[in-house]
Design goal:
With about 270 residues, this protein is an alpha/beta fold. It has helices at about 5-20, 30-45, 50-60, 60-70, 80-95, 115-125, 140-150, 155-165, 185-190, 225-235; strands spanning about 100-105, 130-135, 150, 175-180, 180-185, 195, 210-215, 235-245, 260-265, 270. Strand 7, helix 10 and strand 8 (about 235-245) form a beta-alpha-beta unit.
Length: about 270
């Protein structure tokens, strides 16, 4: 047996143990990025093997919590990919104006920067009072951070240009209060956001939505899990609802490709038509 084969067995046993013990299912995440993150955790724990990590994770609740936090991908940013938000303003907002009430699901919201970006966009469009945003993630720790709405002030200052590039119409600094080195988002932006834990790998749909954003999440899943999530998103989206994916993600070659039409293919915005 080669070292690579042994490593594969160790990873499979680790992920199976975590799933059976905690219910968190990473077994169908993309193997290359998963392997890198697992080895980073092994080294951060001062261990020398994945088997050693398995023993510690299953017998030390604090280690399990750190493992779950580190294994989840928590990359986000205010108005990340500004052209997406600009296109959303131009192409999606006119459609949303036709609804008396708008339900939005932001799946895989991480620490929440993009959720607040969307809330700002909807506020400027005059639609936020009739919106409810469900922001979900697998990671409880990052959800707590997202719900608090407190971010490094330097991050907000660096995001001002992206806000403007994304079609921002007001002064970005109006949306938060500076306190020491932190920026605290206004309570008015939080009032229509529901933060909740949801696992795309194991959980089912929980509402019908007019818009679903699941951006830069599917790239971390293998084809089997991607297919599951695509079906979940399709089942959760109302007819003529809008789906937003990440730049490296696509509906091509999926079972539901024919159920959507391109709304803005360059920004991976689609409309469900069947």
């Amino acid at each position: 047996m080669t070292i690579t084969e042994l490593e594969t067995i160790e990873i499979q046993l680790l992920l199976e143990g975590v799933y059976r013990y905690s219910g968190f299912d990473f077994r169908n995440y993309a193997s290359n990025s998963l392997r890198r993150r697992i080895w980073n955790i092994v080294r951060s724990q001062g261990l020398t093997s994945i088997s050693g990590l398995q023993e510690k994770v299953l017998h030390d609740s604090a280690c399990l919590e750190r493992f779950l936090h580190d294994l989840c991908v928590n990359v986000s940013g205010m108005f990340r990919d500004p052209s997406f938000f600009l296109t959303f303003r131009d192409q999606v907002i006119p459609l949303l104006r036709t609804y008396p009430f708008i339900r939005i699901w932001h799946a895989g919201c991480a620490t929440g920067e993009e959720v607040y970006s969307l809330a700002i966009l909807l506020q400027e469009a005059g639609l936020y009072p009739r919106c409810r945003i469900y922001a979900t993630d697998i990671n409880e720790q990052t959800l707590r951070q997202a719900k608090a709405g407190i971010f490094p002030l330097a991050l907000m200052q660096a995001s001002t240009q992206q806000y403007l590039q994304g079609g921002g119409q007001w002064s970005f600094s109006e949306y938060y209060t500076a306190a020491y080195d932190n920026a605290i988002f206004c309570a008015s932006l939080k009032k229509n956001i529901v933060f909740a834990q949801h696992n795309l790998a194991t959980d089912s749909c929980f509402n019908e939505f007019n818009v679903i954003l699941c951006r830069n999440v599917l790239i971390y899943f293998n084809p089997l899990l991607q297919a599951r999530v695509h079906h979940l998103l399709y089942e959760s989206l109302c007819k003529f609802g809008i789906l937003g994916l990440g730049r490296q993600e696509s509906l091509k070659l999926t079972l539901h490709e024919k159920d959507y039409k391109d709304l803005a293919s360059h920004e991976k915005l689609y409309q469900r038509v069947s």
